[in-house]
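User: Last request for today: this protein with zinc ion, please.
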Amino acid sequence: MEKLIITAAICGAEVLKEHNPNVPYTIEECVREAKSAYLAGASIIHLHVRWDDGTPTQDKERFRVIMEAIKKECPDVIIQPSTGGAVGMTDDERLQPTELNPEMATLDCGTCNFGGDEVFTNTENTIKYFGKRMIERGIKPELECFDKSMIDMALRLQKKGYISSPMHFDFVMGVNGGISAQIRDFIFLRESIPQDATYTVAGVGKNEFPLAVMAIVDGGHVRVGFEDNVYISKGVLAKSNGELVEKVVRLAKELGREIASPKEAREILGLKPL
Ligand code: KMH
Ligand code: ZN
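Assistant: Here's the final one, the structure of the complex with zinc ion:
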């Protein structure tokens, strides 16, 4: 079985210090959290950035500064900026980090309710626009799918030339408004992607570690981090993103799956070597 790629989603756009005081906002806090995840075994950092007061931003310069600061401490880590940003941002606002030509970036494959009145909007034209941008700049998209219909959308747009192949999916499961996170849902999603595709799974809240185990035994990959979950176990806040990654490493070891280094993750995902 392929080695396990662990992605750490260290920050997100919605989670706050009120939920866990270790959620990073400042440059130094982002570096601290990325480094803790990297040292624990993460080969990819999925990155959102904030201003120092916690306000989410897609500002290109903020991304540049934080990406450079992370690279200083974690020289070979793969940094995967978000193009989802935060609910309500415009397409061009969200696309700013692609101007930095990162190796990867997320590409959200459909519109999703996020609870209350919040709607995360990704029209078909938005997805085409983002997909084209990533092809033009040689950025590998991580296809974020909050539901099965988003996989179908990605497959249709791949056939039309808006998304490159082999495809790499992220099943985001357990969002209020997206697919639930039961075993049958996981099997449904992983059986819906092409043979040559890879996938990672991001379980939201209490779904994070059960889904990690499913992906570990199935040969998929795993995303954890404060963006998705702030608890290390029931009612106990995680001290760092590194602590969440360490738990995945322990589970993988128990189940006989080795952890991929950033170099090995690049090989598995078909990224250029450093
Ligand atoms: N914060 C959500 C609105 C992504 O990173 O691409 C979008 C999100 C997905 O987190
Ligand atoms: Zn994200």
